[in-house]
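The pair is quoted verbatim as follows:
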Amino acid sequence: MNEARLMKVLLGPVVSEKGSRISDRHRQFIFKVMGDASKPEIRRAVELMFRVKVQGVQVANMRGKMKRFGQMLGKRTNWKKAYVTLEPGQDINFTDAG
């Protein structure tokens, strides 16, 4: 796993009410990740980008929703999200600019 690959694994945080609730209670953060990313890659990417210690990683493959565009029926693409649990005392602050 080279560093260039690890910088591409995380596509962004998933910001939602559920995400903020579990980050406050369980030190878990939700990220949208590449579809072919593995748990060890996700762990190393989070540790590299945010300089924190990761306790565990759980992944979920999300199916794209069926959506209607006028009369046409379409489907959004499938995607993968990762629930990253941090070690006690660790935290990620997304609002810190800089």
